[in-house]
Write the structure tokens for this entry.
Amino acid sequence: MEKKKEVGLAIKELGNLLKRYTFGSLKPASDVTMMQGWIIGFLCSNSDRDMFQKDIEQRFEIRRSTATSMLQLMEKNGYITRHSVDYDARLKKICITEKAKLLHKSILDRIEATEKQMLTGISNEELDAFFSTIEKMKNNIKDKQLNI
């Protein structure tokens, strides 16, 4: 009998492999997680504009509480600072530190190597189909509650 294929489990396994392959070589030199690495990259690539927690939440589709705890840890570890803005006392602009900028270069090198390795033997058509399928899956479950 053929084993049932579970998409969620396959995605989780791939995520674990990505984390190990990409960020394993950065340890113990860095205490950054994969998600924090992505956030650092996002902040570096948007350094020409003010960035706020809401931008992180929207870009990575994470909840406010998740973003809050992650950004607090990143601030504690010296990767970001948060500053009030003149035009709205409720907002805190997120600024990337020199420590994070230096780490960003090594993260980019590892991501590039990981992407190259991961895509070995995969055609552009297969990759297009993968992204199309992932987008459909995200839309199928986005903002939906399971009625179990």
